[in-house]
Amino acid sequence: MLFGTAAVGAGALLAGCTSNEPSDDDEPASNDQQAADDKPGKQVTIGYAGPQADHGWLNAVNVNAKNRAEKYEDVTLEVTEGSNDTAQQIGQIETLINKKVDVLVILPADGKALTQVGLQAMRAGIPVVNLDRIFNSPQAYRCWVGGDNYGMGLNAGHYIGEKLKDKENARVVELAGLDNLELTKQRTQGFDDALKNYPNIEKVARQAADFTVESGQAKMAQLLQAQSQFDALWNHDDDQGVGALRAIEQAGRDDFLMVGGAGALSAFQAIKQDDGVLKATVLYPPTMAASAIDLARALGQGKGISGLAEFEIPSSLTLYSAVVDKENVDQYMSTGFK
Question: Where is the Periplasmic binding protein domain (predicted)?
């Protein structure tokens, strides 16, 4: 998981960038004073404007941000209440701007609608780390960090494809998220593109749910009623997957494998127990919020990250959508969200 595992210390993620000034013998100058590590440095006040925690993943985002900030003696985190109302969130961010925080971390309720307040912060000299839902203009943020929705679908499709590659006339179904969201379209596109590599596999049905337990149960029940036989299911979201698993149990079905999405603790536990249809989930790591705090701290202290030749942090970081199954679930268990 690139730059997104909260269990990895910030010293391993954020280390030095070399000075612009060459030494007398043309060797690179020491980077010791440019290291963003766990040692206390310049005090940084980070304003955090996150989402309303009305979904397991969104709550995990907020928890990851707060827990990461608490690790650093040199970080003060100013946290808003969080909102899915764009006007309210704009007001919350403007309050942080007026407080003259050093850096802002923003997960916008709506990237397009909040672009102007991102621009406002940048024009006020406050660097913005744009988390997950991207602003419409790159001028509205210094750095973007988020997940890979297309990659989620792609990796889910390849995992299922490899499991079914030797089965003739294999059939798969898809339980998607909200169809009016671009992320849902990207996840479906990645899934479809992966399945093109397996000519023996046909996607025979797709049903869109609402990222809720209730919708997952209702829509999965419809899929099961309409499809008397299939070999694999990809479900976009582990929260709605709780409902999907209820519908599957109620129908008494165990004749297919299921792959989830996001990385909920309940999914990890079911995968580890390995006594049901759920065999894997594809990560959309909420630990991205911890990484956003690391990046904001580095920006506030004028430091860079290790492993790169450049002096500045990148303008974007896309996290990898790893597949978690029984072979590696123990590695990820501590990152699972409730």
Answer: 46-303
pLDDT digits (tens, 9 = 90+) for 141-184: 999 999 999 999 999 999 999 999 999 999 999 999 999 989 99
Amino acid in position 289: A
Token output for 291:
């990484």
Distance CA 236, CA 176 (A): 5
Instruction: Provide the pairing of β-strand 103-106 with 44-49.
Output: parallel
Q: CA-CA distance, 263 to 280, in Å (whole number)?
A: 9
Sheet strand arrangement including 232-235: 201-208, 170-176, 232-235, 257-262, 278-283, 323-325
Length of the chain equals: 338
Q: Read off the pLDDT of residues 221-240 as tens digits, 9 standing for 90 and up.
A: 999 999 999 999 999 999 99
Structure tokens that stand for 22 in this block: 């060459």
pTM across the whole model: 0.84
Alpha-carbon gap, residue 78 to 76, rounded angstroms? 7
250: Cβ–Cβ under 8 A, 6 or more apart, which residues?
A: 221
Q: How far is CA 316 from CA 117, 189, 295, in A?
A: 19, 22, 11
